[in-house]
């Protein structure tokens, strides 16, 4: 009888130990998952995990992330056959909706914007947009914000609204704009777009993101990094990498920028 009781007690202890181990394992699994979510959008990537495949397109070999291949286009690409673009394996397109002139400072809608965004959407290609800014005052920035919102209001954007500020030439209207102003304009543009429910990206190459902007401030928003090299060199986390400006895609008669979106 006593032996039977001892066996029952031992059995209960073993069950309790097993339950305890299961709880510990589940807790570790959940904590690791939370850690991955919290650090996923802040850690630096391992450059060696970026690999160009046999089709000449960039891939990212990291099972913590998923990727999509896309292009960014403007009137410079002229007329595009979006059906062929889709069939070539392109997942998304970032389309220039407009720009402010680099010298005269006037606002312009990209002449191919409507044709491009409607053609992409018709062929089930996810779209985002970018605007080239040369705003030098808060008033001009607000004009650009209002201009972009009006252009995109009738379209469903699955990808971000992107802020592109860069020098057109040495004598353009941005030449005298301070680093602080450039940074503040990028932040204010993104804040306004996110207020309207859009995701955002701030575009730039390594020099622009690290020197013309205050990187510590702008990296609160997702970055669109431009560098036509095999391995990224930006000392910050980025959401999208424009890795080529000489892509060849069926349906586009010119070279086109290629992008890797990481999420």
Automatic annotation (TrEMBL):
GO biological process, alphabetically ordered: carbohydrate catabolic process; cell wall macromolecule catabolic process; peptidoglycan catabolic process
Matching PANTHER family: LYSOZYME (PTHR34135:SF2)
GO MF annotations in UniProt: lysozyme activity
Entries under Pfam families matching the protein: Glyco_hydro_25
InterPro entries per record: GH, Glyco_hydro_25
Family membership: Belongs to the glycosyl hydrolase 25 family.
Organism: Floccifex porci
Name of the protein this chain belongs to: Lysozyme
